Amino acid sequence: MASNQTIGRLSLYRRLLHGLQSDGVRNVYSHQLARLAGATAAQVRRDIMVVGYSGSAAHGYEVGALMESIGQFLDTAPVQRVALVGVGNLGRALLAHFVGRHHRFSIVAAFDVDTHKTGRVIHGCRCHTLAELGEVLAAQEIRIAMLAVPPGEAQETANRLVDAGVTGILNFAPVRLWAPRNVYVEDMDVTMALERVAYHAGNHVHEKERVT
Amino acid sequence: MASNQTIGRLSLYRRLLHGLQSDGVRNVYSHQLARLAGATAAQVRRDIMVVGYSGSAAHGYEVGALMESIGQFLDTAPVQRVALVGVGNLGRALLAHFVGRHHRFSIVAAFDVDTHKTGRVIHGCRCHTLAELGEVLAAQEIRIAMLAVPPGEAQETANRLVDAGVTGILNFAPVRLWAPRNVYVEDMDVTMALERVAYHAGNHVHEKERVT
DNA sequence: CATTTTCTGTGAATGTTTTCACAGCGTTTG
DNA sequence: CAAACGCTGTGAAAACATTCACAGAAAATG
Predict the structure, then answer these.
(1) Domains delineated in chain B
(2) Residue nearest C21 (alpha carbon to C1')
(3) Is A5 on the interface with B (CB under 8 A)?
(4) What span, in angstroms and rounded, lies between the C-alpha atoms of A51 and A183?
(5) Which positions on strand C lie below 7 Å from a protein C-beta?
(6) What residues 127-156 of chain B have any CB closer than 8 A to a CB of chain A?
(7) How far is B17 from A34, CA to CA, in rounded Å?
(8) Distances in Å between the alpha carbon of B208 and those of A50, A88, B73, B196, B212?
């Protein structure tokens, strides 16, 4: 019923709403949200339809209530515990990025093969050996992992994550992973993104970029 | 003519083909490429259609020639010079990631506001002040930038990049950027990606994940 | 209190992307 | 050499996503 892109936008709306709330805004119209999200008003309304929330024609959407509804629809816990595998350059950047800054996601365990790293606490997060993976993930009931290992080890590591009960993987390795049906894999491939940027940056015409 | 996602997949194919070539593979069928790319054979054939290359029914696609054709279609220079703005945790990770590893993209200039960083060479890349942005970008004919600054400064920095002649931005800040029509912006938003993963990782049914 | 305005929610239209399904053709096989 | 096979290229269908356009309703206006 809810498309993948709708999911993405809903979480974006939630973040924007959070910001609005901090600014003391209590109500918001679809076109305002649309402007913030880089979408159209119609799309915002459609997206909000799927979560089942209704605004009022007079005052638009109530910020707090809408946030609540979206949260309920996405039905993820208020705080998600996430594991990080691979504490290289990227892994450390991710750790630093998520420490403190994020209320929704918390990296609660890190893993690496490098024995210089294992056993230590990096950016406030304990780094374990891969052997402890199953144990730690089970103990902390972690179901989401970020995978930031070298390409060659990505598939093998993903398998171990799946065995350890992970059902969602955010994969940073520039490799396509195989995983069973019930495990969701999303790729964040910087190179692929750069390729797209490079393509569009070359003198092609863009009909439908950001609104003027 | 070519959709955004086709562009993405084409660059993925090219990368995969590069790997195959290194392994001494000379010919490849659409279903093999599909398996590697996590797509369907029909999709691979459609994508290849748009670049104008034709394989043979008997031996599939010629690896080298197909790579060549895709490259010609994407019509980007063999090596792309890229600027990095924001040398924080993420920025340094990106620098480290692209140093040496990538043949296609090369970060040739970095920029930051922190005077502890400016003037120094980090991961083999000179770090300039933002004031030098226009000058350096013009001198090196850089048209692509990665934006890894804090959310609050993202829009302002993007504006300066646009003024400096950049036509493609890969934005890592969790903020929607406004840019003129002729500038392409692609967002890499880790939080949004994580939200999607979290949603799907929760007990929802996936009809169409990776093939078994 | 009638009119105008401005918003939501949504059916229908439109646009885009993926998949199906098969003709056509070299290659292999009997 | 004829039949069978397995592949590509592609028109057509299906699936999916976005936008249009308008009814209905609450507030503002005169």
Answers:
(1) 4-72 (1.10.10.10), 80-193 (3.40.50.720)
(2) B42
(3) no
(4) 23
(5) 6-11, 16-21, 24-27
(6) 143-144, 146
(7) 40
(8) 20, 32, 30, 15, 10
CA of A99, closest CA in chain B: separation in Å?
Answer: 12
Per-residue pLDDT tens digits for A120-149:
999 999 999 999 999 999 999 999 999 999
Cα separation, A174 vs B18, in Å, equals 13
pTM of the full structure: 0.91
What pLDDT, in 10s, does the model give residues B95-145?
999 987 777 899 999 999 999 999 999 999 999 999 999 999 999 999 999
- C-alpha distances (whole Å) from A57 to each of A17, A45, A69, B37, B192 are 18, 12, 18, 46, 29
Strands (E), B35-183: 61-62, 80-85, 105-111, 121-122, 125-128, 144-147, 168-171
